[in-house]
Please model this.
Amino acid sequence: MTNQQPLVAIIMGSDSDWPVMQAAAAMLDDFGVPYEAGVVSAHRTPDLMFEFAEQARERGFRAIIAGAGGAAHLPGMVAAKTTLPVLGVPVPSRHLQGQDSLLSIVQMPKGIPVATFAIGEAGAANAGLFAVALLATTDNTLADKLAAFRQAQTEKVLNMTLRRDA
Ligand SMILES: Nc1c(C(=O)O)ncn1[C@@H]1O[C@H](COP(=O)(O)O)[C@@H](O)[C@H]1O
Model:
């Protein structure tokens, strides 16, 4: 994280979500996008969640990445209180492996969208990448970095070699 104005907020229902949600933070770090990360819960800190969501736009955030597990109401409730884009990350849950988190986040009623990503670390990383892509619509330097990331990824896969004697 840098000292610049944070453009992305990464919020999560509990600090137990951080091992997954840090993949979003790592992606923003890689692209040099300033962000703020913290714990906010629709269930356990409802007043803080309302305050956060109501102030998010005026605080200068351009997108919110919200991760939660189980009855994952945080992304949808935050989306209900802000017009900023909310990117939802279903965190794997102990008993239902995140299927509950996924369905809680993705099945929003018409009118309040949450852009929902895959369960777990890949979803968190992709939410970070998607936030970069959103910001890159008005930032050519970031768009160039995103293109370079894609190119490097393509080259890495093209250079993958498989054992042929197996
Ligand atoms: N789904 C939510 C919300 C919410 O949606 O407001 N607040 C906490 N949680 C989730 O509860 C799980 C267990 O939390 P603990 O590990 O703190 O018991 C976490 O995955 C968290 O996201």
